Automatic annotation (TrEMBL):
<dbReference type="InterPro" id="IPR013988">
    <property type="entry name" value="YjdM_C"/>
</dbReference>
<dbReference type="InterPro" id="IPR004624">
    <property type="entry name" value="YjdM"/>
</dbReference>
<protein>
    <submittedName>
        <fullName>Alkylphosphonate utilization protein</fullName>
    </submittedName>
</protein>
<dbReference type="Pfam" id="PF03831">
    <property type="entry name" value="YjdM"/>
</dbReference>
<comment type="similarity">
    <text>Belongs to the YjdM family.</text>
</comment>
<feature type="domain" description="Protein YjdM N-terminal">
    <location>
        <begin position="4"/>
        <end position="31"/>
    </location>
</feature>
<dbReference type="Pfam" id="PF08274">
    <property type="entry name" value="Zn_Ribbon_YjdM"/>
</dbReference>
<feature type="domain" description="Protein YjdM C-terminal">
    <location>
        <begin position="45"/>
        <end position="112"/>
    </location>
</feature>
<dbReference type="InterPro" id="IPR013987">
    <property type="entry name" value="YjdM_N"/>
</dbReference>
Length: 112
């Protein structure tokens, strides 16, 4: 068959070269041969105190946060249950009682 390595994302054996990159046609993952691929587990999201956060954690807001496009404010001490970690500038996806779904920055919360 081929001498190409399996896809690090889905372990498919159907990988091929595309210039300098290796490509997996099954999941669309692209990587450079010989380099370590960065995975989501490598990026550790930490709260304001440096404690690592995980999906399903409960956090407390440490600063009044204005809700963009609204006159609502998330007050200091608001507990947010069952958070979900996501990629991006606002790395916490959650639902706050009385406000609804929101994205928060981890620098404004502490682990409860």
């Amino acid at each position: 068959m081929s001498d190409f390595p399996n896809c690090p994302s889905c372990q498919s054996t159907f990988t091929y070269h595309d210039g300098r990159m290796l490509v997996c046609p099954e999941c669309g993952h692209e990587w450079i041969e010989g380099e370590q691929s960065s995975t989501e587990s490598d990026a550790v999201i930490k709260d304001a105190n440096g404690n690592p956060l995980a999906d399903g954690d409960t956090v407390t807001v440490i600063k009044d946060l204005k809700v963009k496009g609204s006159s609502l404010v998330v007050k200091v001490g608001t507990k947010v249950k069952n958070i979900r970690l996501v990629d991006g500038d606002h790395d916490i996806d959650c639902k706050i009682d009385g406000i609804g779904p929101m994205k928060l920055k981890s620098e404004f919360v502490k682990k409860a």
